[in-house]
Amino acid sequence: MVIRQTRNLTKTLTNLEILRPFTTESTQSQLANPTHLLRVCTVLYQQQNSPESRLNSKLSSCDFQLTHEFFLQVCNNFPLSWRPVYRFFQFTDSHPNFTHTSVSLNKLLDVIGKAKNIDLFWEVLREMGRRGLANDATFRIALKTLASARELKRCVEFFHLMNGFGFGYSLGSLNKGVEALCKGKLVDEARFLVFKLRDWIKPDEFTYRCLIEGFCDVGDLIEASKIWNLMVDEGFEPDIEAVEKMMETFFKTNRYDQALKLFQTMRCKRMEDLGLSTYRLVLVWMCKRGKIGEAYMVLDEMRKREIEADNLTLASLVYGLLSRGKISEAYNVVEGIKKPDISVYHGLIKGFLRLRRAREATQVFREMINRGCEPIMHTYIMLLQGHLGKRGRKGVDPLVNFDSIFVGGLVKAGKLLEATKYVERTMKGGMEVPRFDYNKFLHYYSNEEGVVMFEEVGKKLREVGMVDLADILERYGEKMATRDRRRRNWLSDES
User: Fold this and answer.
1) How far is CA 316 from CA 100, 113, 264, 302, 369, in A?
2) What is the spatial distance between Cα 368 and Cα 474, in angstroms, rounded to a whole number?
3) Between the CA of residue 213 and those of 221, 260, 484, what are the distances in Å?
4) Which parts of the chain sit beneath pLDDT 70?
5) Does residue 223 sit in helix, strand or coil?
């Protein structure tokens, strides 16, 4: 087992030459030598449990140039293993010509935190505070690690610890930590931290906004409303970002009436704060629910206030009209757009696919290409689902059976194990074709080999009259072949 892991480590490190090196501002000119890096990491892996004297002797015999970049690269090669990294830190800390910085110690702290060694993590935090090397990144790493380990008392104690080392109780550090916790779905822990530190750090509008957005992200509207009320009681006015987040969460949780009630409140009390983003949010959800009449009323209000609707907003209206079968009205909206972009074409394609009119959707696809609007991956996935269904489909001709195309393509791509598993699943008990991952399907053939495959598939599809699907696949193959050439040229230039 150890031999196999050592081989994997060696294989990973010998491929470092083709990767873009990770650099810092202070060491951009000092790139790590891959041979020396391999040698040092091998010693650290094999001797991580050895006595300090033996490990130091082995590392000293490696004859490598110790720089901050080299230390960071060693940490990158042990992202979840604290012992080799910490042993290397102890070795470098005793080196007479090397001094650690905030960047290197934050990297060490991040590795130890991911390894969940909380006691050692706390010791390193103390050492960083004693050396005066803690910064905002240190606060973010410390709070996320301690909160994810449910060490809530230590989260609070961390601020007192840093204050003892002269960093002070900083509202900016608190806000950055709360923001990181909320983005990491640790909003309950963030609230605990804010309330426990209220006697030393008074929260401001940004603090409350982060908490509101965090509770909205986890779907807890009750707690978000409590924070909202507390914010208002303390004399703060929720900014438009917090309002939009609450409205969006109401929409996503099927509380349409409450979202519109909040929107109406904003229209009555703070009309001047309403801008394009708020109107777009309301219009998008109105069109999704088929409230076309209400959507037009919102558009009229935007025109009266001289707020011009952008393409993304009008694309939502186009989709809403098409989903209700109002094709002529949808095209009238599109004709009124001066410079339609991909969002408008996506609205047309989604609308036609909603009506199960894949042929018209493919015609829109051709039109957008003729007008110079390049399709993206999402465009191809929508069209493939429209023609083949979300669970795949069996064609009328055995030559273009969806299973045979997919399995044959996997075999040509060398994905024999995936092909075998797919066949086994479909043969058991007369099951229907399982849900098909179009992302993986297109990803496997995003190269020049895919061009040949898509051309062959296109010919077979045309033979049975499936011209639309053939055009889609052939166009994707041509685009990915070009991208593959660009990628290879970039790699050759870098080397």
Assistant:
1) 53, 44, 21, 15, 21
2) 16
3) 10, 18, 40
4) 1-31, 390-412, 423-436, 444-445, 447-450, 480-495
5) helix
